[in-house]
Amino acid sequence: MKVHYLGTALLSLIAGGALGQEISLDPVTVTSSLVEKRASQTGRNIAVIKGEYFQQLPVHSIDDLLRYVPGVEIQARGPQGSQSDIVLRGGTFQQVLVILDGLRLNDPNTGHFNSYIPISPAEIDRIEVLKGASSALYGSDAVGGVIHVISRTFAARLAGNAEDNPKKTQVNGGISTGEYGLFNANIGAFVQRNRLAVSGGFLSNNASGVRQRGIKGYFHNNTASLSLSYAISPNWNLAVRSAYDHRDFAAQNFYTVLKSDTASEKVKMSWNQVRLSYQKNKTAFSIDGGFKSVQDTYLFNPHSIANSSKSRLWQGLAILQQGITQGTNLIAGVNFQQRNIESNDRGNHTLNQLAPFVSVVQNIGGHFTVTPSVRMDWRENIGTEVSPQINLSYKKSGWQLRASAGKTIRDADFTERFNNYAKTLVTGGSVGNPDLKAERSFSYEAGADWFLTGNANSQLKVSGTFFQRRQKDLIDYVTTPYAQMPRKENLSPTGTFGLALNIAEVNTTGFELDIQSASAISDNQKLLLNAGLTWLDSDNKSNIQSFYLSSHARFLTNFSAIYQIGAFSVSLNGLYKKRAEREASAIEASISKNYFILNARAEYSFLKRQLGVFIQADNTFDREYSDILGSVMPGRWVMGGVRFNFTK
């Protein structure tokens, strides 16, 4: 499909209007400055996705939902939550920070696990996607942007007096079956009584899978989570979360282009978090503690010895918010992290990190907001990095003008530092480098948002952003013969290896156009649309060919739409991507120059939309495509099911 026709289709949807009463196009957000601000006052380009969209759109997992958010590129290795790399603004998959209720999720072992977000969809209040540099608040990895998942319990506003809290009960879920042995289930509940809010849920995606070159592309991906929030007093609140995530999937050619690769992988994760918070008048204080444990077992083929790695992430976060004057807010905090790995492939390693940060939100004259921030990251045996940033916003009438500039960093993960270090003999493949420096970059952007609200039932927001990121010391694997390897202890003299090096100086320039529309066409007709177009150009100053640094889309447009008329609804997700071509003749695999995919879902509901039956087709046009060379994604996949949503 030509880009011209796709753009015409999007514009025609906008002309039709969309679902106005169920969405705010200028929502309150917390990700850009840690204090609650309207998106139009942050100086940043922020997309907000409501958790309830998971039931309404043709998606199966959280990475599926993110795939169609304007400006987000998902490089999927497998379907329905098996594994995906998240890319923002042309960065690498390690240059996006994922956060759950304020605490970082990025795995110490590898960035390939960052899309494993340990929360059931029913528990999600919203997802805030902050595009662009954010290391001044969040430290390492927040280069291309931040994905912040906020749960219903941690977002709940509970008063200390029980009679001031409304009673709420919501139970929702769904079951679907389809081709290739598909069976999916999603169920969750949220209950609020007096001073207590409790939520929990379970998501399970399973299939015997599509036949691949060596094996079937099976998957069994399950997530269960439970959380509660309790108002101890009018000023004190306690929130607790626990989750378990288990994924078992075919991983053929996820990481190599070798014909002998018929891999399978199992990833088990537990996540625990506790928050104690205090708020009175202009003072707010919170202390968060979190622990993440991941057990990864990767079997290259039935004749190999499985790689077994267990990574742990301990972290603490303390934040003070103080209102100085009516227009001035001070935010100060400190973040501690301990990263640990025990692996038969990478060895045993521990890294401690401590980072204080401070930010000021200053409103000037009612329309102008300036937010300077700075963070200092100390990393054991690595050194210290200081990351400053400033955000500017001018909001008047229906317009916001914004700009931002700041430094970002990304530290190497344990795979980049120690891959293949603990094996007895390595005959080839990727090899880590413990001497890697942090990636550094300076980013700046300028943009504008136009808010057009004709009435309470009609809203339109158009955003445009120009950005540039100047990066140095970027990390990637470089083909290196045995004679040039810095460490040869367990390497075969006849092997050729991919050595992790700080190789590249890359300048990335881009432009984003985001469109959100929400209107009621009539009393029983509603349409909601999110769409985005992103143009990117990365100039690699080094002469060394790099895979990850050149894998992002040159042009990306993605969208989602929901149309309701009476009891009938249709929802669509789609994307068009243009990127560099690649091929691997040994496994007869290729990356095409471009592709377009569309997912569609039709539903008929009963009992005031509390119960519905639906039919869904993923990859409706049966397009053959891959995001990662060798990892072929499924063709058309038809399924059907029922969903329910009871609220009291």
UniProtKB/TrEMBL annotation:
GO terms for biological process: siderophore transmembrane transport. It is a multi-pass membrane protein. Pfam families: Plug, TonB_dep_Rec_b-barrel. SUPFAM superfamilies: Porins. InterPro entries: Beta-barrel_TonB, Beta-barrel_TonB_sf, Plug_dom, Plug_dom_sf, TonB-dep_rcpt-like. It comes from the Bacteria. Residues 191-619 form the TonB-dependent receptor-like beta-barrel domain. Residues 1-20 form the signal peptide. Its main location: membrane. CDD domains: ligand_gated_channel. Belongs to the TonB-dependent receptor family. This is TonB-dependent receptor.
